[in-house]
UniProtKB/TrEMBL annotation:
UniProt-recorded name of the protein: PadR family transcriptional regulator
Domain Transcription regulator PadR N-terminal: 16-90
Lineage top rank: taxon: Bacteria
Native source organism of the sequence: Micromonospora ureilytica
Lineage of the species this protein comes from: Bacteria, Bacillati, Actinomycetota, Actinomycetes, Micromonosporales
Database matches in PANTHER family: PADR-FAMILY TRANSCRIPTIONAL REGULATOR, TRANSCRIPTIONAL REGULATOR RV3488
Length: 121
């Protein structure tokens, strides 16, 4: 089962900022990395990624430059800025809160809830 569009959209900004915090990259490579990290469960399209990259650039979270490698076409490479790293830290703080709350909820399940959930799997 693939991850829902709502969760993909909610996680898009920290995912892209986190990947670019590892080092500069271009659109197609970012899409491949997301696919790799999620084991193919996150279905990202160019229609999701490129508007997000442009928005993050407008907000000052990313810088970009056109680069060409011998024998290949020019690619727009993105890199995270100091402002983007600060935003990533804030996004991570928020996600840690959400994940922590979910762990508490899922860890503290009553036997009835556990049986019902296991029956759905």
């Amino acid at each position: 089962m693939k991850v829902t569009k709502d969760l993909v959209a909610a996680s898009a900004t920290p995912m892209v900022l986190g990947i670019l915090a590892e080092g500069e990259s271009y659109g197609y490579a970012i899409l491949r990395r997301i696919n790799e990290l999620s084991g193919g469960e996150l279905e990202w399209t160019e229609g999701l990624l490129y508007p997000l990259l442009h928005r993050l650039e407008r907000l000052g979270h990313l810088d970009s430059s056109w680069q060409s490698v011998a024998g290949e076409r020019k690619r727009k490479y993105y890199r995270v800025t100091d402002r983007g790293l600060a935003e990533l830290a804030e996004q991570r703080r928020q996600w840690d809160t959400v994940v922590g709350a979910l762990r508490e909820i899922w860890h503290d399940r009553t036997p009835l809830a556990v049986n019902r959930l296991e029956g759905l799997a």
